[in-house]
Design brief:
The protein folds into two domains: 1-35; 41-72, no CATH class. By secondary structure, the protein is mainly α. The chain is elongated and about 55 Å long. It is built from four helices and no strands. The model has no long low-confidence stretch (mean pLDDT 90).
């Protein structure tokens, strides 16, 4: 079954469901799937990630083995 046929079959199934709570869960699931995780991060988290990316781009890296030594 190709993707378009699957979508049509899914739409038919949804049209036959009368459970409002289930329909809301489907809506929430679809909205979650379409959202970018970046928008769910706090400004602090975004800033820290950007800082880390900048450090990596500037060659400031710590080898994985060194991280493991610090953690053990």
């Amino acid at each position: 079954m190709d993707i378009q046929t699957s979508k049509i079959e899914l739409a038919k199934m949804i049209l036959n469901i009368d459970n409002k709570n289930f329909i809301q869960r489907v809506i929430d699931f679809i909205n979650d799937e379409n959202s970018d995780f970046w928008n769910n991060l706090s400004e602090y988290e975004q800033a820290e990630i950007k800082k880390g990316v900048d450090q990596l781009n500037n060659g400031k890296r710590t080898p994985y083995k060194e991280i493991l030594k610090k953690l053990s």
